[in-house]
């Protein structure tokens, strides 16, 4: 069986900006027969994610995350439908997902590496299992619950950076659902700002590419910042930290502004900013969603319930075709997405 796949064509270099040409589409033959325990699945949706910037390097900086190898098929979050099965858990027509789905139009997968997808949980939107009703929703929800110290009635102001992206757009909404009285987003275009406020219920949004973020932030957070959901790091985060209150909390989710410059996912802060954390007793502990797998099942149910009740709005940017995986990744890293960046591989 002949299928298409995407391999790593070249590395941008630790300090380079990834481009679509770092990826290459080619054809390959899959075996016709399955071994015991295997399934053949057709790929429906694939995810491109910010953490993949680290996998393009020949060293990721994270022990449990392996770098992608040149000319080998790439992998990440995926959803597909089983076409043939030699595994007792799976039958033709089942929807399945995996964090390590190969970037192929069809794939032969070990049945015991797959998780079941119940389309009902997302009202049939299968791509949501890569975003809001999947790892991105869990990252936002569990990040807030584990590190946010949010309590209803405490009049807390939440600031979210990368606010119009997959995690950020959910984190702001979840912060509100968990009890924050004011929610402010920081993102990279006026269109994104307008969507945050008019569709996703943020109180205010700041375009960090325009004007003075510190001044704008002071205007829209008159009582200072109590919780900061940090997706980006760098100058934006330094600016937010300078306006954080005594005993406030940072949810250290990601540092995307640093991924093209650093080999570590959580680079050290400027000494001046570090000293603000100490003086104001601000917590800033790294959050890793994969360390909280015991809470995934209940988390997915919570996200699904909020979505179905209309309390959690979901935004996606969808690009079609396996050959566009590289285009989608380049666009994500440059801010081309609103909500979760998805690639639709087949219907
Ligand atoms: P997003 O959907 O948020 O997409 C990335 C966004 O980052 C872009 O749309 C862009 O939006 C913004 N961005 C890009 N470069 C910069 C920059 N230099 N400065 C500021 N913003 C920038 O991606 P994800 O939701 O997949 O990831 C968001 C963060 O969450 C990442 O840091 C990722 O590593 C982290 N993450 C952490 C997890 C964990 O377990 N801790 C799990 C999953 C993700 P804009 O137009 O606003 O610039």
Characterise this structure.
It is a single chain. With 347 residues, this protein is of the alpha/beta class. The protein has helices spanning 52-55, 135-147, 166-178, 190-198, 213-220, 234-241, 271-280, 296-308, 325-333; strands spanning 2-8, 23-29, 38-47, 75-85, 95-102, 106-110, 115-116, 157-161, 182-187, 204-207, 225-230, 244-252, 283-286, 316-320, 340-344. NADPH dihydro-nicotinamide-adenine-dinucleotide phosphate binds at residues 49-51, 136, 139, 162, 164-168, 187-189, 192, 231-232, 236, 253-257, 287-289, 332-333, 335, 337, 341. NADPH dihydro-nicotinamide-adenine-dinucleotide phosphate is lined by residues 49-51, 136, 139, 162, 164-168, 187-189, 192, 231-232, 236, 253-257, 287-289, 332-333, 335, 337, 341.
As a whole number of angstroms, the C-alpha radius of gyration is 20 Å
CATH superfamily label of the largest domain: Medium-chain alcohol dehydrogenases, catalytic domain
For the report, how would you describe the main beta sheet?
7 strands, mixed
| Uncertain stretches of 5 or more adjacent residues | none
Q: Helical residue percent?
A: 25-40%
Q: Compute the number of structural domains.
A: 2
Determine the N-to-C terminus distance.
19 Å
Write down the overall mean pLDDT. Answer: 96
Here the CATH topology of the largest domain equals Quinone Oxidoreductase, Chain A, domain 1
The fraction of residues in strands falls at 25-35%
Ligand list: NADPH dihydro-nicotinamide-adenine-dinucleotide phosphate
Number of strands: 15
Shape: globular
